[in-house]
Amino acid sequence: MAETLCTPGERLALAAEYDAGSGTCVRDSFICATLVGVKRVLPAGEGKAVQRPRVEVVRSGVEPVVPRVGDVVTARVVRINPRLAAVDILCVGPKPVRQRYSGVIRVQDVRATEIDKVQIQASFRPGDVVRAEVLSLGDARSYHLTTAKNHLGVVHARSVAGVPMVPVSWQEMQCPQTKAVENRKVAKLDA
Amino acid sequence: MEYVSPEGLRLDGRRPKELRQLKAQLDVLSTADGSALFEMGNTKVLAAVFGPKPTELRSQEDEKRAIIRCEYAMAAFSTGERRRRGKSDRRATEITKAIRNTLEQTIMTELLPRSQIDIYVQVLQADGGTRCACINAAFLALAVAAVPMRDVVAACAAGYLDSTALLDLNYMEDAGGGPDVVVAVHPNHSNRVVLLQQDNRVAVETFEEVMELAVAGCRAVADFMRGRLLEHTRALAAARAAGEDGGGGGGAAMEGDSGEELEDDEY
Q1: What is the pLDDT of residue A60?
Q2: Which end of chain A, N or C, is less packed with Cβ atoms under 10 Å?
Q3: Is the predicted ipTM greater than 0.85, yes or no?
């Protein structure tokens, strides 16, 4: 079998010959596993000063999906107020998250230009699905997100009539049924 | 009372150095991050692990390491005589501390600063050796929850009755009044002893014999648990591979079902 499974405490390699990666610890000149999972050996990194292969233990099962700074996430707007839009993060990249992560898009992070003139209620509405980038890990309650790029913003929104709207410009969307135009910060997809 | 018959058999028919039958089921609760059901003969224990998660109380938060909370409870129906006991009786408090102490030495708490891990162990059926079974069940649940640990931790008891060292005492033998030595070890770290408890007095020579037997028992328990964890991991990997191959979700499941039916017909 190419991949070997290991349990906590199992000796994997000599600490002098390998680097200890995630899921391992160094104990008495040995690298030991700390998790139940598959042992993997990564070849020595070229650019790094230490030219040693790295041994790590990867947990079998689904790795938790956690938003990191710089990730593009898909989120649903749950509530708005003049200062910010509160969202629930649904996906990080293409992967759905398993638990609820809340985020906020503050008024100054909605778009890149003329940020003093931004009105939250003219950019997002509760229920909209938004593509945004993680700006920082934020405070204890929520991540800080930004939509201040062309490819970020609202990707799916329903009109007052409850019909999915079609984007007509970077800040307007139109309902195909009632032809009513509503204001949104629209994402430019496939850019 | 005779605890070891002239033929060398114990009350339940075991040899003096024989463990009871071990059974373990992993990931039995969907709500917990990790859970395990562990059986040593008629002793049956359920363990559930929640976390690592942010500390609930700010005052308990530790900047450098995770805090571990442990709760031990005995079901009212777990003993022969139905009895309701609270979580706060002295025996339960002592066992809780023993379990927490053992696990604190095993979990790499320094890797998870400002977090908390909750461990709940519930005795469903008690027949001696509950604290060993609790430690073993809690270890399995922690392993399922992917909490980083220094080593496998395995616990086992041994006693001395009728001038014979006995491994893994059941309730009748426990009540026999002889010494009862509970040991938990880290088997991959040259059998480092992380828990040692003893009831009643015993001569030093006897103690060494009993202790050695208990450590050997721990190693056997550790081997069993390691086997179960690897088996569980393989089953998970196989299930995931099957899920990825299927792709279509419902359609794939249907095919799988019909395949099983065919096999049933053949046998």
Answers
A1: 62
A2: N
A3: no
Structural domain span for residue A171: 72-183
CB distance from A176 to chain B under 8 Å? no
Question: Is position A22 within any domain?
Answer: yes
Average pLDDT over residues B101-127: 93
Q: Do the chains contact at B149 and A23, CB–CB below 8 Å?
A: no
Burial of A159 (0-12, 13-18, 19+ CB in 10 A): buried
Partners of A72 in the beta sheet? A133
Is residue A103 domain-shared with residue A81, that is, in the same domain? yes
* pLDDT of B120: 96
- Which one of B233, B234, B236 would you mutate to disrupt binding with A, by most A Cβ within 10 Å of its Cβ? B233
The confidence score (pLDDT) of residue A45 equals 67
**Pair A106, A25 in one domain:** no
Q: Looking at the domain assignment, is residue A188 inside a domain?
A: no
Which three-class secondary structure state does DSSP give residue B18? coil
User: Is residue A23 a contact partner of residue A58, using CB atoms and an 8 Å limit?
Assistant: yes
Q: Which residue has the tokens 């379990």?
A: B99
The answer to whether the CB atoms of B150 and A27 lie below 8 A apart is yes
Question: Nearest CB to A9: which of B150, B230, B237?
Answer: B150
Q: Which residue has the tokens 């569980």?
A: B232
Closest-CA residue in chain A for B224?
Answer: A7
CA within 13 Å, CB half, B223 = 7
Q: Which residues numbered 56-115 in A keep a CB inside 8 Å of some CB on B?
A: 59-62
pLDDT tens-digit map of A46-88: 555 667 888 888 876 556 678 889 999 999 999 999 999 999 9
CATH number, domain at A169?
A: 2.40.50.140
> Does residue A63 fall inside a structural domain?
no
pLDDT for A63: 63
pTM (two decimals): 0.72
For residue B148, is the peptide bond before it cis, meaning its omega torsion is within 30 degrees of 0?
no
CATH code of the domain in which A43 resides: 2.40.50.100
Q: Is the pLDDT of residue B81 over 90?
A: no
Please tell me whether residues A106 and A41 are part of one structural domain.
Answer: no
Residue A67 lies in a domain: no
Q: Are residues A110 and A174 in the same domain?
A: yes
Fold for B22-236, please state it: Ribosomal Protein S5; domain 2 (3.30.230)
Overall domain count for chain A: 2
| Rounded distance between C-alpha atoms, residue B192 and residue B139, angstroms | 16
